[in-house]
Write a structure and sequence with these properties.
- This protein has a two-stranded antiparallel ribbon.
- It has 2 domains: about 100 residues, no CATH class; about 110 residues, no CATH class.
- By secondary structure, it is an all-alpha fold.
- The longest helix has 28 residues.
- About 65% of the residues lie in helices and about 5% in strands.
- It contains 8 helices and 2 strands; from the N terminus they run αβαααβαααα.
Length: about 240
């Protein structure tokens, strides 16, 4: 969590150099699609290795959490990369590698926590609240990503101003969705493992949203001034 705070401060000053913020000087690159598959698929291997090591004995709540975690990363690793229209685009190997280091640590911490057959269960009401937030965030993230993908026609790789739905209020509802999603996950976990994951999510996605917001305003003079970056009416 302490490293997450340092990372947050750093990312406020230095945009992570991939996607629209990519620039020369960050070393060798890899195909954008391949980078997503490798760096996000890696966490599934790390996470599920703990259940092989410890044996599959999760309680009911842990089983639900494992399924939700896997759902997100199966989509992010093997569905999302084949839907984005980023033909010819790359990402630095440094970005892919740093994401893999994070996923190694995060997947290990969560796998260790959820594979413990003696872990305490969360009150059903609290668990249900967390599940509601997870589903809400997942749907918001999915629908917002779909809207962004549909801005481009086949063969296009440029950027356009997104409109409609929650885009009327914030520049990055997809990132807001992921923040809400993992907040729900942390509530369901009821542990430091889940909380640390959410704090890391904030440390990465809040600066990213602010950077996107600034980029939109700098790139499109007609960009709506009433939109916030990621939290409606606040930030």
């Amino acid at each position: 969590m302490g490293i997450a705070l340092i990372t947050f401060v750093y990312l406020l000053r230095q945009n992570a150099p991939y996607g629209r913020h990519q620039k020369p000087g960050w070393g060798p690159t890899i195909s954008n699609r391949a980078g997503w598959i490798v760096m996000e698929g890696f966490v599934l291997l790390v996470f599920w290795a703990w259940f092989v090591i410890e044996g599959w004995k999760p309680n009911a709540q842990a089983a639900v959490l494992c399924g939700l975690f896997s759902l997100h990363y199966i989509h992010r690793s093997f569905i999302f990369p084949f839907r984005i229209r980023t033909k010819g685009k790359t990402m630095p190997l440094l970005i892919m590698g740093s994401a893999m280091v994070f996923n190694l640590i995060n997947g290990s911490v969560l796998g260790w926590d959820l594979s413990n057959p003696n872990r305490a269960e969360v009150h059903p009401f609290i668990f249900g609240l967390g599940l509601f937030l997870f589903v809400l965030g997942f749907i918001l993230n999915l629908l917002s990503d779909n809207a962004l993908m549909n801005l481009r026609k086949p063969g296009e790789t440029g950027y356009k101003i997104p409109n409609g739905a929650l885009f009327r209020l914030v520049s990055c509802p997809n990132l807001l969705g992921e923040i809400v999603e993992w907040a729900g996950f942390a509530i369901m976990c009821g542990s430091l493992a889940g909380l640390s994951f959410w704090i890391w999510t904030l440390a990465n996605l809040l600066p990213r949203a602010l950077a996107h917001h600034r980029w939109y305003h700098n790139t499109f003079p007609q960009y709506p001034n009433n939109r916030k970056a990621v939290i409606p009416f606040l930030l």
